[in-house]
Amino acid sequence: MSPNRQVLSTILPPRKILRPTLPTRNTVPFSTVINEAHAGEIASWIDKKENTYSLTNNRYEFKLLLRGTRDGFTADSFWKLCDKQIQLVVVMKVKGTDEILGGYNPIGWN
């Protein structure tokens, strides 16, 4: 409080505020038909588990191979992108409803 008084204590340097940079997250959904919870449920069906896998312990990676709005809704586009793929999950939404249909093929098509 006294500007002319000498400071007798040790003055520490100012603290640095660390702002860690977090890795960027992929916020783009992998599908417009199913979400991560659906993927966990499908994975539990594949493994014939009674309990559904949670979002954090799903042992499968779902990779989008074909999107009808991007690749076309034809049989040729399906065979071009999905032929000889093993452990293939096919899901589709019925237009105008919330109904989702699909199937799983562990050995693939030839």
From TrEMBL:
InterPro entries, per database record: TLDc_dom
Residue ranges of domain TLDc in the record: 32-110
The protein's name: TLDc domain-containing protein
Organism: Gigaspora rosea
Taxonomic lineage of the native organism: Eukaryota, Fungi, Fungi incertae sedis, Mucoromycota, Glomeromycotina
